[in-house]
Specification:
mainly alpha; 3 domains
Length: about 220
Amino acid sequence: MKRLQQIESLNSAYETTHQVIICTEGYVKTDYHAKKIAVSFEDLYMETYCLVAEGQRIKFPVTPSSASAPTAVSTVADARVHMPKLKLPKFSGNCVDWPGYYDAFTRLIHQNKRLDNIQRFHFLKESLPAGRDFDIRQIPLTAAYYTVARDTLIQRYNIPRVVFSNHKNMLYQLPSLSKEKPDDIRSMISAVNVCAAACNTINASSQDGDHWVAHYLTAKLPKE
């Protein structure tokens, strides 16, 4: 039990140091980032913890009389169940992909109350495409500049007209059907649903637009 607590204590101390490191300016150029030391530490921590916990289980097995009351070891082990980590949303640099990226980044990073603005700004820079947005990358990593950088990206990439035009072109490019094959019709309906959902997210759908889609798809159906 004491060893598990010591391992937990070391991990907590590391997490504190890790947060300081990733918020340091120039972090991405350090060996810590390049050699993925954080990943190595996490793997080593989990391996060590599991080995010690298993040793505790073998040395102090749960007897029938104590089965009804969880032991301290089992309680700690249960508390350390690790859920899969979500990857940082990455932006492609294409305006068409902006709505999906924006929603993911907003929910996972921007609205994450455990992060401060310096950390959010760090993740914002990390999520940008390589070779793009040099002005954002060169902004000093400070809490005050996070909002400025985020607003700049929104103004730059949040262009509903481009998203709508892209999905409208997808409908234009749907092949005409020569025969009423269920698979082909389902594929067409699926493409329409994707386009409609995308247009709804940018408030580009209207009753007139629905009529236009219906008319256009009718022209794609078999003549006989």
